[in-house]
Amino acid sequence: LWTRGQDMVDAQLRLGVDVMTGHWEYTFGADRVQEVVENDYAGRIDFVAQNVTDADWGDRIFRPYVIREVNGVQVAVIGQSFPYTPIANPRHLIPQWSFGIRDGEMQETVRKARHEGAEVVVLLSHNGMDVDIELARRVDGIDAILGGHTHDAVPAPLPVKNPSGGTCLVTNGGSNGKFLGVLDLDFRDGAIRGYQYRLLPVFSELIDPDREMAAYIREMRQQQVTFEGETFPMEERLGEELAVSEDLLYRRGNFNGTFDQLICDALMEQVDAEIAFSPGFRWGTTVLPGMPITFEHVMDHTALTYPAVTRNEMSGRRIHQILEDVADNLFNKDPFY
């Protein structure tokens, strides 16, 4: 938030990311996204998204896919950004960009990649697991979907039959760098003959830090930053101790967690409200009982690019509608509803 994403952009470049797609990146605004893609990522990281188009003309904003040679095999990586970005996030941040699942366009993109020479097609998706499964059922020619958004740590890929009877492997590698999903495909004689998938847990305390990355993190955190007119040392602000936790504070489920409740209690107290809503993002660092709650912990859970809190009068009917909409978004039997 304080660096407008530059800290993570530079970390990606050092990490060696090859291909990516987007969701929260878009909340920095269209101009900032284009700036990073056209400058920082140029020649280093391919930003792909087949489902992001100009709202007026329908032209694609980004490349829909890239073809890379991997161990002598031509592999197409198609990008699928979060399809509901203008609904889940403020529309005014990307007013000229249109999103959506666009399964028809996805099918045409797969055909085009195959025609261009792709022997294997992988979808890098931010749909969420349920939407990815349904997309795999509807689109021919995708061999695997490596997904995100719903933060599911899927221990083994789900084989899904496509309309032609072929198989698409659908998986999701968790979130927050807690796991590394590794998919090895056995490609021989023009077809995938088998695969091996491993969801590797990342135990940071058991892994020797990369020297270059560790040095970068130290340097980045020691810098002075200016945010909303105030200049301050990042490390000092992040380390500020605000309280000591009496209970386990977490934010993981679809309904609520103890950190969700802490946020809602704070909102009600600060703005003198009778009820508070907090979206269950399912991210943020868990705080154990007896641990200090630092400013960094609060930032982990609340540092959005649109942090405004509002107090509004609502009828019981309106509250009921909001809760029903949220439940529908999470549990509707048709992910494409």
UniProtKB/TrEMBL annotation:
GO terms for cellular component: outer membrane-bounded periplasmic space. GO terms for molecular function: hydrolase activity; nucleotide binding. This is Sulfate thioesterase/sulfate thiohydrolase. GO terms for biological process: nucleotide catabolic process. InterPro entries: 5'-Nucleotdase_C_sf (IPR036907), 5_nucleotidase/apyrase (IPR006179), Metallo-depent_PP-like (IPR029052). Belongs to the 5'-nucleotidase family. The gene is soxB. It comes from Ectothiorhodospira mobilis. Keywords: Hydrolase, Nucleotide-binding.
